[in-house]
Amino acid sequence: MALTDFDLVLFGGGGDLSMRKLIPALYARDRAGDLPATAQIICVGRNARTAAEFIETVNENAKSHINEKTFNQAVWEKFCARIKYVALDASDASTYQPLNDVLRDSSAITRVFYLATPPTLFAKICHNLSARGLATEQTRVVLEKPLGRDLASAKQINQEVSQVFKESQIYRIDHYLGKEAVQNLLALRFGNVLFEPLWRREWISDVQITIAEELGVGNRMGYYETSGALRDMMQNHLLQLLCIVAMEPPLSVTPDAVRDEKLKVLRSLKPFTQNTLAKNVVRGQYRAGHVDGVAVPAYRQEKNADPDSNTETFVAVKAEIDTWRWAGVPFYLRTGKRMADQLAEIVVRFKSIPHSIFAQSTSSFQPNCLVIRLQPDDGLQLNLMAKTPGDGMRLKPVELELDFAETFKAPRMDAYERLLLDVLRGQLTLFMRSDELEAAWEWVEPVLRYWEQEGNEPLPYASGTWGPAASSSLIGRDGLQWREEALPE
């Protein structure tokens, strides 16, 4: 669907997210011919500088995040000509006149405000936009994560933003929902008859969802100290992936049909008790170690770190869903920094065969397993048992592999490319609704309270490993293993 003309305003336009993700994503869509010729990108920041000075900053900081194979200097120069810079104080409505001056006043032009700012500014910016007459019925606002620090702050943000914008105008972004493999998970489940009859407790043993990073906290220490892995990754990315794996078939792919089903999953998550909090949640923090053969420091030794910090860089959780489809099926979620590998994957492990008719023991059989890879490469892998060539009936595990990049030769869209297009088209399906956000916080908040009350330190783990030993014990108590531990050597 072709885009109508638009003015896209990036609050935090000179910040890290804009330079690493948003501006490169917009360039990619311009190169693909998606952006109307007269569309404007207006970057907002606090620092007074000329448009030429800001473009120089864009050249220095955003250009390096564009794939060299897709970079075209002529397209880049044309794209940069779209960019305008406005200096204002986002918290002070009296400084907004330069923004009023550059925005075009026409009902034919889509107006989007993207708030790539700390969440403490969300409500203030929205009210200031309203005070300056910039928030119209056609306006859309995009809220970046983190959407609050807890349930109370999330509710407050929702309440204050909704005083200015209707729910249909608010786009709460979670970039994992824009990933190609997540879209393919929807297609796999609801576009094929093969898996859906098996997608239930009678046939599935467990589900594992992992988002692991080799990188440490880097230059995000200021943010990470106030967030930690639970707020940064578990409350949003991992729970959204769980929802898509576990939800019932929606009536259609319309926004509320999909989001209604995701909300049902969140509300069906079994609440934590004092006992299950101690047993089913593991918190860790990386220590010094080696990643890819390179020595790296402990979290507490990183630049600007608190030497006594108890901020978690690793979380593993056992979740349970109280529905007929999923009763008794454990969902294991984990995320961490300075891990042994950089990956994001969903592992759906099916139950073992009930009886072997072959001479070898059933203990040598590996359960069938579906692996949905989200990064570093999108793809699907189905693990089966097959006969080895030669005399006799000997079985061994084999893999059926689907590499999306190899199968589909067309250029692939980055998650932010897809989500920005959806915002500009007014398509809400891949964005969180307010009740979804609050339901996710409601499930996670007991973990935060438990950690605060207990006051215990996160468990240490060496950089370059798969987290604390307690993570293996968490899943091992159920007679299971994380996928990398279960793989044959």
Structural overview:
The chain has 489 residues and is an alpha/beta fold. The protein folds into 2 domains: 6-144, NAD(P)-binding Rossmann-like Domain (Rossmann fold); 177-412 and 433-486, Dihydrodipicolinate Reductase, domain 2 (2-Layer Sandwich), CATH 3.30.360.10. It contains 16 helices and 17 strands. The chain has helices at residues 16-31, 51-61, 73-80, 97-102, 122-131, 151-162, 180-190, 221-225, 228-246, 255-268, 274-280, 404-407, 415-425, 434-454, 469-476, 483-486; strands at 6-11, 40-45, 83-87, 110-115, 140-143, 170-172, 204-212, 281-287, 289-291, 294-296, 314-320, 330-336, 343-350, 369-375, 379-387, 395-403, 459-462. The strands form 3 sheets. A 9-stranded mixed sheet has the order 16-15-14-13-7-12-11-8-17, with helices on both faces. Helix 9 packs across helix 10 (255-268). The chain is globular, with a radius of gyration of 24 Å. It starts with 5 loop residues before the first strand and ends with a helix. The mean pLDDT is 92. It is an enzyme of class 1 (oxidoreductase). This is Glucose-6-phosphate 1-dehydrogenase.
CATH class call of the largest domain: Alpha Beta
pLDDT under 50 segments (min length 5)?
none
* Main beta-sheet strand count, sense and barrel state: 9 strands, mixed
Strand content: 15-25%
- Write down the CATH topology of the largest domain: Dihydrodipicolinate Reductase, domain 2
The tally of strands reads 17
Overall 3D geometry? globular
Protein name: Glucose-6-phosphate 1-dehydrogenase
InterPro entries: G6P_DH, G6P_DH_AS, G6P_DH_C, G6P_DH_NAD-bd, NAD(P)-bd_dom_sf
Pfam family, one: G6PD_N
EC number: 1.1.1.49
